[in-house]
Design brief:
Layout lengths: L3 H12 L13 H10 L7 E2 L1 H11 L4 H12 L7 E2 L3 H10 L5
Antiparallel strand pairs: 1-2
Helix pairs in contact: 1-2, 2-5, 3-4
Amino acid sequence: MVRVVDLVDTIKQEFAPAANKKAPVPWTKEQVRDLFKSLDKNGNGKLSKEELKAAFRTLGSRWSSYRARRALRHVDANGDGFISNEELNDLVNYALERGYKL
């Protein structure tokens, strides 16, 4: 399993120009999807509110608790309090619409 810190470091290295990086680079869909999947700590195929908080914290959110609550409200189609694999695409789109950058 990929560690989140390793994933973020790899992504930053891939996008770092030869000179010092000045402007942040937007996350790609694949990177955001991999991040969310890597934070499914118990491997049940669902993301809990706590796992979402960790993901949004990694994405750089100042208010990760708020963003996790909003993501659940926006994306959790079946209302079970978790983001399932079936709901993951909507979660990725939700995160990308917020404009997080590396």
